[in-house]
Design goal:
Layout lengths: L7 H9 L3 E3 L8 H4 L2 H17 L3 E4 L4 H6 L4 E4 L5 E4 L3 E6 L2 E8 L2 H15 L4 H10 L8 E5 L2 E6 L5 H12 L6 E6 L8 H14 L4 E5 L1 H4 L7 E3 L2 H7 L9 E5 L14
Parallel strand pairs: 1-2, 2-3, 8-12, 9-10, 9-12, 10-11
Antiparallel strand pairs: 4-5, 5-6, 7-8
Length: about 270
């Protein structure tokens, strides 16, 4: 279920009447609509409130203290204890009941997504082999953690959406890659309300600490940030007019921004 205001998940629960639930995380998303991070927690917890009232069950990440706290009073199903994170750079692999699963997903942040999928599948008695096959055969599309090889460059296209929480984990994961020539192309994060300026500055600061050859920041909000080495462009068209496609040769490129930025348009210019 998705929402950007209070009472929307409550409304959807009354339609769908779920018996089980899982909240991926409580991130800094849609702050403008929810009002604050506390509003995000309250809004997402409407699912938990429904499950609590209707004697449902909730899957929880045992390493997420907030998930555990918000799920008090509900029958909780923790992630499978046999799950072990084997590798996250560049692609996530894990062990489940001594069986190695090699995904096509990049970044440490995707380990929890896979762990949730494995745990939910196992709870509903999907065979281990079928779980392994499904995860290993999944190729990300739709601008979500998509890896695209374009001539001599590798593109990590994660431009479906962005918020401060997803930006932070994506940047930190990108920073851990061993690739020698890395480029960041970041677009504005929308729906942040009063915290927008502060959060864009925080992400700009983080981007400049990474060992990237180039950092490009695009959008009205990033354009207002104070930077030392990042190149800023108020509009996407300004960015396209300023760059040379050869500057992106032989590089690993992370492209991430909110849906309204539509940064996937950059692909046709590389």
């Amino acid at each position: 279920m998705g929402a950007n205001h209070l009472k929307e998940i409550e409304f959807l629960c009354n339609i769908a009447k779920p018996n089980f639930g899982y909240i991926t995380n409580f991130g800094k998303a849609h702050i403008e609509g929810f009002g604050s991070i506390e509003g995000v927690i309250k809004g997402k917890s409407e699912l938990l409130n429904y499950l609590r009232t209707n004697h449902g069950k909730v899957f929880v990440n045992p390493n997420d203290d907030l998930q555990i706290k918000q799920s008090e009073g509900i029958h909780t199903i923790p992630f499978e204890p046999s799950l072990e994170n084997l590798n996250t750079a560049p692609l996530v692999s894990l062990s489940f009941k001594n069986l190695e699963i090699k995904s096509q997903l990049i970044g440490a942040y995707n380990f929890n997504n896979i762990a949730a999928a494995v745990s939910i599948g196992n709870y509903f008695e999907i065979s281990i082999i079928d779980i392994k096959t499904a995860i290993e055969n999944y190729t990300p599309t739709n601008n979500r953690s998509q890896i695209i090889q374009k001539e001599n460059s590798k593109i990590i296209l994660d431009a479906y959406n962005a918020n401060p929480s997803s930006m932070e984990v994506a940047l930190k994961s990108f920073g851990k890659l061993a690739d020698t020539s890395k480029i960041l192309v970041l677009g504005d994060m929308f729906e942040l309300g009063e915290i927008s300026a502060e959060e864009h500055q925080t992400i700009a600061d983080l981007a400049e600490t990474l060992n990237a050859k180039k950092v490009y920041l695009i959008g009205e909000n990033f354009y207002k940030t104070s930077t030392k080495k990042a190149l800023k462009y108020e509009r996407f068209s300004d960015f396209i007019n300023a760059i040379n496609s050869k500057d992106f040769d032989n590089s690993t490129i992370l492209i991430k921004g909110s849906r309204g930025m539509a940064l996937e348009k950059l692909l046709s210019h590389l």
